């Protein structure tokens, strides 16, 4: 079984309760269920959330050994964290950056993303569907990579 990490940054533990007019009424458990359903055969997801930058970095380091891709909603660290960008730059498999809201329609400080300097794909404004789309893309890329490795 190939594992995909679905990483979530600060305040996303409150998904469903936090500003539902922006982020909707569904919760992280719904994200986990939808991501598991989006997996191709032979893939599985592990959903993780932390409000702490260092914990997210530790999970990215751990992912180097154990995963075939990361779907990542870094929350506000998207716009501030060079340390998370540096951690992602040590990680080889695909990274898909996801934002539930359409960040480019919001405040100017949300328009810049450090994570986008590393991400292989960026999804914003699709609501929770963005996570499932990220998982599908990683399954596709990982399968393609395995086929290339066999050639
Ligand atoms: C977010 C957008 C960020 O700007 C914000 O800080 C979040 C959530 C999103 O999913 O739309 O916490 O990443």
UniProtKB/TrEMBL annotation:
GO molecular function: 3-dehydroquinate dehydratase activity
Gene3D superfamilies with a match to the protein in the record: Dehydroquinase, class II
EC number, UniProt record: 4.2.1.10
Taxonomy, superkingdom: Bacteria
UniProt entry keywords in alphabetical sequence: Amino-acid biosynthesis, Aromatic amino acid biosynthesis, Lyase
Pathway assigned in UniProt: Metabolic intermediate biosynthesis; chorismate biosynthesis; chorismate from D-erythrose 4-phosphate and phosphoenolpyruvate: step 3/7
Residue positions of the active site: 23, 99
Residues holding substrate: 73, 79, 86, 100-101, 110
Catalytic activity from the UniProt record: 3-dehydroquinate = 3-dehydroshikimate + H2O
Annotated site (Transition state stabilizer): 18
Pfam families reported for this sequence: DHquinase_II
Family indicated by similarity: Belongs to the type-II 3-dehydroquinase family.
Xref: HAMAP family: AroQ
Subunit (UniProt): Homododecamer.
Protein name: 3-dehydroquinate dehydratase
Highest classification ranks of the organism: Bacteria, Pseudomonadati, Pseudomonadota, Alphaproteobacteria, Hyphomicrobiales
Name of the coding gene: aroQ
